[in-house]
């Protein structure tokens, strides 16, 4: 029998409905969620092995051309650690990222922004954390871009993160922002996280000590997933 | 004052946005050549035990309009009710699938085996079900729900039993349409709003 997940602390997450983010208005549930203790469906989840990961997968600078050419843009290293709420590293879990190119354009059939595509940049990468939960990517800093919401809304530079953990109930998608970006405070999507101290946790600091001269700047982004409650009392009949 | 607690806080979610496909199912976005194939194309391999079923549906917003940018993930037990990774699980069932709403119609299709009933702590019983996780532009934190089956005995299911407004149970039941085929629509708002879960 698996251990139960710690209940999700909804107050640290974005509000589902935020009028300034217009699409959230018709797409947010109106009724309360049904809450109960996690069950095996949430406590188990898919696992992915090293055989999935190709040698260029975590290097977005070169993975679109399989190492033949480099993407245009400011070269950065994004690294950090995936932990759970108990502080333990989450080993060998899949992280996927996606982002716009240096001009703020996504390689997607639905993106029609007139900033040009970079012929050497795809915009996706993936990796498995190591035995202690550490990960790293090489990429280029994505550009800010305008988007159809209010008349003149711009997304701050950001990288989308998708993390699995070891349980389907730990599944998380979020976005990493960059320290010092003045567009963060003007972004209605960032503003869906109402607690400023929680939003700050999505802003990666520049880390010069992990940067490499004449090569790349480093940004640090740690990720915390839900933890599990562990108690010797767990598997006894209710109330005993 | 008291001792400080040393627990961490989960990273806040942000919307997956309209371009989630680039990162999760790049072929769907038109990004070819980075990975050999998209992850989670099927929850079953050849030889999976059990009844193969196809579930079709759409994710509808509060106006009834289908989302054309949604991405869904499913997770389930095998036909015997054993989750992949657990002892005795069917090796031909990965249990995990990723699928997108069609970019034009919004329709999605999940082809899998019907899972078996499962048990939780304290003897809780769960009727056959598939867990779903839905992300899209405008969804700020992924939505969790379950697909149950209208042609199964759901009377002792511990989750369905907790739904106070009994007609809302219907929102979690896939309806048979043809042999081996079911319909399951997800309504984000409105009078038939799907029951979303916080487990």
What does the secondary structure layout of this molecule look like, with pairings?
The complex is a heterodimer of chains A (240) and B (199).
Chain A lengths: L23 H4 L6 E2 L4 H4 L31 E10 L9 E5 L25 E5 L5 E7 L4 E3 L5 E3 L2 E6 L8 E7 L17 H5 L2 E2 L12 E4 L2 E3 L15
Parallel strand pairs in A: 2-11, 2-12, 9-10
Antiparallel strand pairs in A: 2-5, 3-4, 3-8, 6-7, 8-9
Chain B lengths: L19 H5 L1 H4 L22 E9 L10 E6 L19 E5 L6 E7 L4 E2 L5 E2 L2 E7 L7 E7 L23 E6 L2 E3 L2 E2 L9 E2 L1
Parallel strand pairs in B: 1-10, 1-11, 8-9
Antiparallel strand pairs in B: 1-4, 2-3, 2-7, 5-6, 7-8, 9-10
Strand order of the largest sheet of chain A: 4-3-8-9-10
Proportion in helices of chain B: under 10%
Shape of chain A: globular
Number of helices of chain A: 3
CATH level-3 fold name of chain A: Protocatechuate 3,4-Dioxygenase, subunit A
Q: What name is given to the CATH topology of chain B?
A: Protocatechuate 3,4-Dioxygenase, subunit A
- How would a textbook summarize the main sheet of chain A? 5 strands, mixed
Number of strands of chain B: 12
Listing every helix as H and every strand as E from the N terminus to the C terminus, the arrangement of chain B reads: HHEEEEEEEEEEEE
What's the structural domain tally of chain A? 1
CATH superfamily of chain A: Aromatic compound dioxygenase
Assess the beta-strand content of chain B as a share of residues. Answer: 25-35%
**What does the average pLDDT of chain B come to?**
97
Q: State the CATH superfamily name of chain B.
A: Aromatic compound dioxygenase
Most residues in contact, chain pair and counts: A-B, 91 and 82 residues
The end-to-end span of chain A amounts to 18 Å
- Low-confidence region ranges of chain A: none
Count of the separate structural domains of chain B: 1
pLDDT < 50 stretches of chain B: none
CATH level 1 class label of chain B? Mainly Beta
What labels describe this entry?
heterodimer; A: 240 residues; mainly beta; Protocatechuate 3,4-Dioxygenase, subunit A; 4-stranded mixed sheet; 12 strands; globular; B: 199 residues; 9-stranded mixed sheet; two-stranded antiparallel ribbon
């Amino acid at each position: 029998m698996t251990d139960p997940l710690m209940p999700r602390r909804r107050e640290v997450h974005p509000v589902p409905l935020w009028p300034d983010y217009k699409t959230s208005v018709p797409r947010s549930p109106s009724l309360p969620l049904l809450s109960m203790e996690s069950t095996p469906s949430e406590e188990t989840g898919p696992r992915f092995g090293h055989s999935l990961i190709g040698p260029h997968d975590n290097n977005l600078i070169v993975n679109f051309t399989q190492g033949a050419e480099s993407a245009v843009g400011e070269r950065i290293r994004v690294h950090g650690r995936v932990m759970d709420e108990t502080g333990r590293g989450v080993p060998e879990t899949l992280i996927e990222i996606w982002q716009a190119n240096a001009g703020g354009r996504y390689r997607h059939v639905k993106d029609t922004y007139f900033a040009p595509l970079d012929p050497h940049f795809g915009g996706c990468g993936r990796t498995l954390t190591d035995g202690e939960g550490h990960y790293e990517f090489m990429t280029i800093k994505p550009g800010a871009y305008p988007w159809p919401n209010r008349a003149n809304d711009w997304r701050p530079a950001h990288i989308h993160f998708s993390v699995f953990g070891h349980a389907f109930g730990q599944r998380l998608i979020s976005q990493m922002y960059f320290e010092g970006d003045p567009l963060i405070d003007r972004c209605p999507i960032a503003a869906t996280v109402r607690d400023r101290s929680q939003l700050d946790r999505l802003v990666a600091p520049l880390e010069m000590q992990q940067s490499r001269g004449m090569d790349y700047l480093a940004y640090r982004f740690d990720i915390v997933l839900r933890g599990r409650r562990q108690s010797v009392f767990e598997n006894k009949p209710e109330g005993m | 004052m008291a001792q400080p607690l040393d627990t961490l806080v989960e990273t806040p979610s942000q919307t997956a946005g309209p371009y989630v496909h680039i990162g999760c199912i790049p072929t769907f976005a038109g990004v070819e050549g980075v990975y050999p194939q998209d992850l989670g194309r099927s929850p079953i391999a050849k030889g999976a035990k059990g009844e193969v079923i196809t579930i079709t549906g759409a994710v509808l917003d509060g106006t009834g309009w289908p989302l054309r940018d949604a991405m869904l993930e499913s997770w389930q037990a095998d036909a015997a009710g054993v989750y992949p990774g657990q002892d005795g699980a069917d090796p031909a069932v990965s249990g995990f699938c990723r699928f997108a709403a069609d970019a034009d119609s919004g329709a999605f299709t999940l082809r899998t085996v019907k899972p078996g009933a499962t048990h939780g702590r304290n003897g809780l019983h769960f009727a056959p079900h598939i867990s779903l996780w839905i992300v899209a532009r405008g969804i700020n934190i992924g939505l969790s729900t379950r697909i149950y089956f209208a042609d199964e005995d759901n009377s002792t299911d511990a989750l369905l039993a907790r739904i106070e407004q009994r007609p809302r149970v219907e929102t979690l039941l896939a309806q048979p349409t043809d042999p081996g085929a079911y319909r399951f629509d997800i309504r984000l708002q409105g009078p038939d709003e799907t029951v979303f879960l916080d487990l």
